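Hi support team,

I've been running sequence recovery on a batch of backbones for a student project. Most finish fine, but this one hangs at about 90% for roughly twenty minutes before it completes. I'm not sure whether the input is malformed or the queue is just slow. I've pasted the structure tokens below so you can try to reproduce it. Let me know if you need the job ID as well.

Thanks,
M.K.
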């Protein structure tokens, strides 16, 4: 509690209390939700040719929706909605080929699947981007 011994005209104390209340409200505001990182992976589409690598990030938004974000070496990117399924599986919404992503228990790698089954496995990356991450390569 803040106590001040100040002398104000009759209307001023109300203004001071209102301003103090507003200031305390602004300082104590903390968002209820924030995006939650499920993981980051490096998808080596063509092994031995890193210029075709893709960085995959799956997260849960502050509204509780799952999303996948992909970035490529050429700078192109895309974000798509996912539906979370049981068994560590995320299914791409409105995918004609049945794109699914399964986080492998144990090592945390990401299996890329479609209606035919396993396509390939993407390597798990650290949560914080590193200098020699997935999209770094030399010509």
């Amino acid at each position: 509690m803040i106590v001040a011994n100040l002398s104000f005209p009759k209307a001023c104390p109300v203004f001071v209390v209102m301003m103090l209340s507003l200031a305390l409200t602004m300082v104590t505001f903390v968002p209820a939700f924030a995006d939650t990182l499920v993981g980051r992976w490096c998808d080596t589409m063509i092994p031995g040719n890193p210029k075709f690598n893709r960085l995959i990030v799956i997260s849960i938004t502050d509204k509780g929706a799952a999303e996948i974000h992909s970035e490529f070496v050429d700078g192109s990117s895309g974000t798509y909605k996912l539906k979370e399924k049981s068994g560590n599986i995320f299914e791409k919404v409105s995918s004609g080929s049945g794109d699914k992503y399964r986080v492998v228990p144990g090592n945390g790698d990401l299996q890329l699947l479609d209606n035919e089954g396993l396509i390939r496995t993407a390597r798990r990356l650290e949560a914080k981007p590193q200098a020699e991450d997935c999209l770094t390569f030399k010509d």
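--
Follow-up from support: It reproduced on our side and the slowdown came from queue contention, not your input. Confidence is low (pLDDT under 50) at residues 1-9, 11-33. No action needed from you.
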